[in-house]
Amino acid sequence: MKRPTLLVVDDDRHLLSSMGQWLREQGYDVDLASQYTEAAAALQRKAYDIALVDIRLGEGPDGFDLLAYCRKIRPETSVIMITGYGSVETAVEAIRAGAFDFLTKPLIDQELEMSLERAIRQRQVLEENQTLKAQLDARFGLENIVGRDHRMLRVYEMIESIADTRATVLITGESGTGKSLVARAIHRRSSRRDKPFVEIACGALPETLLESELFGHVAGAFTGAMGEKIGKFMQADGGTIFLDEISTASPALQVKLLRVLQDFEFEQVGGNKTFSVDVRVILATNDDLRRLVQEGRFRQDLYYRINVINIELPPLRERISDIPLLVEHFLQRICQETGRPARRISDEALQALQRYHWPGNVRELQNVIERAVLLGKGDVITLADLPPSTAAASVGPWDHEGPQPLKQALCLPERQIILDALEAHHWNRQATAAALGINRTTLYKKMKRLGLEPPRGKAVHKAIS
């Protein structure tokens, strides 16, 4: 375990030497300085966990000057001020200036030990928080949303543009396309990132409980309400609230939501006190809200209020060129999280994944890869490791039973025709384009759209101008 590093600064050289020796015996890595310039040079060279600084440092700058300098270039270092002329006013001044603690001479061993231990514990907590934030960024940051399809690139641009605003965002798309992930990415890239992100699935609770969950309730508001409850909007104060499945909200709840979005004010269920909150609202739905408005099932004024910025996520079947990227991403993450050795996927299995229609979208793909990693026996994921419904996609588009969506039905034969031509011409694009009667640029665009890439280890023969 790394020893805590200390910088001790005192103009009394005898006291400085004895204190340094005692602290080393306690297990600290100690450097000594007897004046401001010496201490400032040490701070420039090295990052210390703690600095013990005497207020009086002889002629020139004093301990308060060194405290200010340390706060400027080493803000992570905890500074403990010491003095033989202590007073309440001096202690208050030191704490206000950013000191972690204030001790008076003669120093008592136990008192100094307790102060050092508190400073080390605080540093450990800060480091743990930074680690957790880094993990959150890795799991919920924009970098975790995978895809190079032009529609996904547009999504990235919109997230970057609107993340650090207060504008209400409506995320639409089929179930499993990653709406929650986009909402978290918006929060993580905003100035609210250190404040709460509160998520609630509106469709998972009955109307009476949902209103209480969102706005809280007072004691006795309804049967079973034994005490006061703080709602999600209050919990999210200063941060972001994400309301998923907003289309399921009842007409009464829609009225209350409209007021919150207009004034950011609300009352608890059964209460008459008005609460104000500073919160960013992100909503999501897999329904067509415009159609629901026309049918009278969703308030038009609420629809216009929440549809300030609309981020639409495409279904996975319409961006199959992203499937290889997603598969590689999930393979790496799942193997790392489960401690399994690294896996790769066979070309045959990958082609089956690209032919499958993915009704569950990205979430379903993640589950398929997780299943393959956990149940697969070899280093390579094959067709045998895929669920039967997914593996069946490898037989070709004409062998499926039952009707398919028109867009998919038209896309799959085209993909197979181009794939057959590429393989017949050893992936030579110039020869393939000539055989198909199209130009090379059109072939390249179609290959990208349909997710056609040469097998691993096979070179791509590009046209020579």
Describe the protein in words.
It is a single chain. By secondary structure, this protein is an alpha/beta fold. The chain has four domains: 5-132, 3-Layer(aba) Sandwich (Rossmann fold), CATH 3.40.50; 143-314, P-loop containing nucleotide triphosphate hydrolases (Rossmann fold), CATH 3.40.50; 316-395, Orthogonal Bundle (Helicase, Ruva Protein, domain 3), CATH 1.10.8.60; 396-465, Homeodomain-like (Arc Repressor Mutant, subunit A, Orthogonal Bundle). The chain is built from 19 helices and 14 strands. The chain has a five-stranded parallel beta sheet, sandwiched between helices. The chain has a five-stranded parallel beta sheet with strand order 7-8-11-6-12. Strand 3, helix 3 and strand 4 (78-83) form a beta-alpha-beta unit. Helix 10 crosses helix 12 and helix 17 (406-424) packs across helix 18 (429-436). The longest helix has 32 residues, at 109-140. The chain is extended, with a radius of gyration of 31 Å.
